[in-house]
TrEMBL record:
Source species of the chain: Collichthys lucidus
Protein name: Sterile alpha motif domain-containing protein 3
Species lineage: Eukaryota, Metazoa, Chordata, Craniata, Vertebrata
Residue spans of biased composition, Polar residues class: 320-339
Region (Disordered): 314-348
PANTHER family: SI:CH211-193K19.2-RELATED (PTHR31025:SF27), SI:CH211-196P9.1-RELATED (PTHR31025)
Length: 746
């Protein structure tokens, strides 16, 4: 069996359309292993010359590129079919060339004729009442097509040249680079359009068989290849808006409410009502989503939060641009199930990815096998070929250890784990591999994908936030929300005993607590408690900064930004930032002085301020500005100065996407600035800071707190701050950042 699986891997690698140095080295390793196993299984069988050609494939790939682009057709005398063609066509010269040309013409004809092909071809259609179908299929059809009583069904259909049959397993989409599968339960044709009723399947990659094992998903069957749903949503008196659901109506009331709440940024709890035709289109409470259909009208009815008459203003938050129409691709519901006990979230991580990964201990019998194999390896050099059970156990334990640090480990992270594994257990080293552990890294990649599937089924927010249950057919699964800047607690679970509703009440109470004097301790406790709720709001809702500041004003202080950054990355922001900046300052100033050309002139102009006021605050500010210039970026995009008499200052600041502003006094430029603050999306999120370097550090912290992207014009500067000063994901550097790091170390 192992010999056959090796051949399967070899074939996949040989015909792969893209290759890297690692994949070619891995191919050499697999060919060597296959030869060894073949000799062990069949010691008396000699390989034919044609079998020996396999040894040359890696070298040929290095010379000519992927072999799939170099395939040729070889004619053999025993091919009687081709001999008949030669006789019928009276062509006996260069038969492979003739056949190849005919084949190319056939392919070209198929490609060009596809534009004229009938997009939908159906045969053997029968009309049946919807009610006689299975209940789950009938429910799915009524939900999408509420006005239909009969439906045309068929067992097979050709759609754009592709044949589909009832019971076929199809790829429904992809998530994290792995396919998602679904089974076609029924094929319906209405008004010239095809509707598939499918049942989603859970996919698990089985390392032993190099294939996917499919299992019935607990998710409800959903129709695909259907039209978007348009709803008229009444939010209040004289306030009706349009909501577009490209993937159709959600399965549950909770999901639909969450979609409406997120799309229109509603702050209060509410219920939904719909127009019931049985009662003259009067509004009735919505209990199941099957009651609504395309172009239906639903009404938002706000619920009172307090028992007294004091209620909050029942208006949605402002939405950037036009609010007449909103389109939602996918929305995930919050986990509102109460936990068993109080306390912090069990998923909260306490440290970043370790510089040296520690391999955990395996179970007793696995450790015995590995100890024995390690002893034999040290004496005779014999390596262990682990059984499927042992390999599965090793991968399971490694995945459990990896998830303590990351749910989405990078390729470098998995390589670190694989190298640590073969270093601790040399018997597991792969013979012929360029680093002895490439196969383990690939196995870990699939294992982590299976592990995330398991976590998604358990409701882990860090994974379910990327679960596209209602992805539109014409849209790819883009914008996957996962840590990209070494965030340790990217999307944590709610604390034990807390739900979305209880944490929303904590947020409302927090608005009152920040108005009290000497109340920093209580504010800090509530900010810590609501961290998971705040992160999910940032990641799922992606609110405007102005709206988010009005909901979480306590976050926009120096102390809480430092605390929030610590919660996200486990690294203290302010102390680490300035300690590393001061440590590298002498070397940086030396590098800046050596810079020539136009950049050198700009740096000299910036450094003039140090000669006038040689304080630590001035040096830090000048070094940060000069760093931008050294990296060929505009320092005024990071720090922009205005005069207090400049009438255009406010207009310019409102157009600033992200940066630090300084307002100077016109009377005496040598005096301290009138104001220093931070601008994001044209909003003054921080003011009165009094120090340019502190403002830059807080701006960097807010990028993490609000999950913002680095501005393209300052990408290298923020990369240096992140990876060199704060040492977050410092192993992967761009060429500019790596060049600067080498200079600082040298």
């Amino acid at each position: 069996m192992a010999c056959c699986l090796d051949l399967k891997d070899i074939v996949e690698l040989v015909v792969a359309p893209v290759h890297s140095d690692e994949s070619i080295a891995y191919l050499e390793c697999k060919i060597s292993e296959h030869r060894q196993r073949h000799q062990e299984l069949f010691p008396n069988i000699r390989l034919l010359p044609k079998h020996h050609y396999l040894e040359h494939y890696p070298a040929l790939i290095r010379l000519f590129g992927p072999l799939i682009h170099k395939w040729t057709l070889r004619f053999e005398a025993k091919h009687s079919f081709f001999k008949q063609i030669a006789r019928h066509t009276n062509c006996f010269k260069n038969i492979p060339l003739t056949l190849a040309r005919k084949h190319q013409l056939t392919i070209a004809s198929d490609l060009h004729s596809s534009d004229h092909r009938t997009p939908l071809l159906v045969t053997s259609v029968s009309s049946v009442p919807i009610d006689v179908l299975q209940s789950n299929i009938a429910t799915a059809i009524k939900q999408r097509l509420p006005d239909e009583t009969d439906v045309h069904i068929t067992k097979s259909v050709s759609y754009n040249g592709m044949n589909y049959n009832k019971g076929m397993i199809v790829v429904h989409g992809q998530l994290f680079g792995l396919p998602e599968f679904a089974e076609i339960l029924q094929i319906c044709v209405l008004q010239g359009k095809i509707h598939f009723i499918v049942k989603k399947l859970s996919a698990w990659y089985r390392e032993h068989f190099r294939s996917f094992e499919l299992d019935t998903s607990h998710m409800r069957e959903v129709p695909t290849m259907a039209q978007p749903i348009r709803l008229r949503v009444i939010l209040g008196e004289d306030d009706a808006r349009k909501l577009i659901l490209p993937a159709g109506i959600p399965d549950s009331i909770q999901e639909l409410c969450q979609t409406v709440k997120t799309s229109f940024r509603l702050q209060e709890d509410f219920r939904l009502q719909y127009q019931d035709a049985d009662f003259g289109n009067d509004f009735v409470n919505l209990s199941v989503t099957s009651e609504i259909h395309d172009k239906a009208t639903i009404k938002v009815v706000y619920l009172s939060i307090h028992n007294n008459d004091d209620t909050m203003t029942r208006r949605p938050l402002a939405v950037q641009g036009s609010t007449d129409s909103l389109s939602v691709s996918s929305v995930e519901t919050d986990n509102t199930e109460p936990a068993s006990s109080s306390g912090s979230s069990p998923s909260t991580r306490l440290s970043i990815w370790p510089s040296v990964f520690t391999i955990p201990s395996f179970n007793y019998d696995a450790e015995l096998q590995l100890d024995k194999a390690n002893a034999e390896c040290s004496v005779s050099g014999t390596h262990l070929s682990p059984s499927p059970k042992l390999k599965s156990h090793i991968l399971e334990k490694l995945a459990e250890e990896i998830i303590k640090f990351k749910a989405y480990p990078t390729d470098n992270d998995l390589n670190d784990v694989a190298e640590a594994l073969v270093n601790k257990h040399p018997c597991l080293k792969e013979q012929g591999s360029f680093n002895g552990c490439y196969g383990w890294k690939i196995s870990l990649k699939y294992k982590m994908a299976n592990f995330r599937t398991k976590l998604r089924g358990l409701g882990c927010h860090e994974v379910t936030i990327n679960s596209l249950k209602h992805k539109a057919q014409d849209k790819a699964a883009l914008n996957v929300k996962k840590p990209r800047r070494a965030e340790v607690n990217y999307c944590p679970q709610h604390p034990k005993g807390e739900t979305t509703d209880t944490l929303e009440n904590e947020r409302i109470a927090l608005l009152s607590e920040i108005k009290k004097r000497n109340n920093d301790y209580v504010v800090a406790l509530k900010m810590e408690k609501t961290f998971s709720y705040r992160r999910q709001e940032v990641l799922q809702g992606q609110p405007l900064v102005a709206d988010f500041k009005s909901r979480w004003p306590a976050l926009f202080t120096q102390k809480e930004i430092d605390n929030e950054f610590m919660r996200i990355s486990t690294v203290p922001l302010m102390s680490t930032f300035f300690a590393e900046l001061d440590q590298h300052s002498p070397r940086m100033m030396e590098l800046f002085r050596r810079k020539g050309g136009a950049a050198g002139k700009k740096i000299k102009q910036i450094m003039v301020a140090i000669s006038k006021d040689d304080t630590i605050h001035t040096r830090r500010a000048c070094i940060l500005k000069s760093l931008c210039v050294y990296l060929n970026e505009d320092h005024e995009k990071l720090v922009k100065e205005y005069m207090n008499t400049d009438t255009e200052a406010n207009t310019s600041m409102e157009k600033t996407v992200m940066g630090v502003y300084i307002i100077q006094k016109e009377a005496d430029p040598g005096d301290d600035p009138e104001d220093i603050g931070v601008l994001i999306e044209g909003v003054k999120v921080l003011s009165g800071l009094g120090d340019t370097a502190i403002a830059c550090a807080l701006l960097f912290g807010l990028i993490y707190c609000l999950n913002l992207s680095y501005p393209p014009e300052l990408k290298c500067t923020f990369e240096v701050l992140q990876k060199i000063l704060l040492k977050l994901d410092g192993q992967r550097l761009s060429s500019k950042a790596q060049f600067l790091k080498n200079k600082l170390i040298g």
